[in-house]
TrEMBL record:
Name of the molecule in the record: proton-translocating NAD(P)(+) transhydrogenase
Cellular location(s): Cell inner membrane
Pfam families in UniProt: PNTB_4TM
Lineage, top ranks: Bacteria, Pseudomonadati, Bacteroidota, Flavobacteriia, Flavobacteriales
Domain NAD(P) transhydrogenase alpha subunit C-terminal stretches: 11-95
Organism this protein belongs to: Aequorivita sublithincola (strain DSM 14238 / LMG 21431 / ACAM 643 / 9-3)
Record-level GO BP terms: NADPH regeneration
Length: 98
């Protein structure tokens, strides 16, 4: 209970961001989804580079943080590659038929 009382503003901020994100995504026209996905993939790429840089500063004997960082880098890479795969498939839908 102390954690909630100490971080109540941060909790409200996260809840507010979730509602704003839902409203923004729900009101995006379908024609803009592909460019937005590409932009999100680029942002994820920058975050992945930052995660790798942070992992390089973790001490070698801190196995827990190294494992968590490795999992985070793997999931970030999976997110980026999956996003580009989906974006590529969406772009193929708009290409002229042969």
């Amino acid at each position: 209970m102390d954690f909630i009382n100490l971080h109540i503003q941060e909790i409200y901020f996260v809840i507010f961001c979730v509602f704003i994100g839902i409203e923004v995504i729900a009101n995006v026209p379908s024609i803009l989804h592909t460019p937005l996905m590409s932009g999100a993939n680029a942002i994820s790429g920058v975050i992945l580079v930052g995660a790798v840089i942070v992992m390089l500063r973790v001490p070698e004997d801190d196995y827990l943080n190294l494992a968590l960082g490795g999992i985070a880098v793997f999931l970030g890479t999976l997110n980026i590659s999956g996003g580009f795969f989906v974006t590529g498939r969406m772009l193929k839908m708009f290409s002229p038929k042969k």
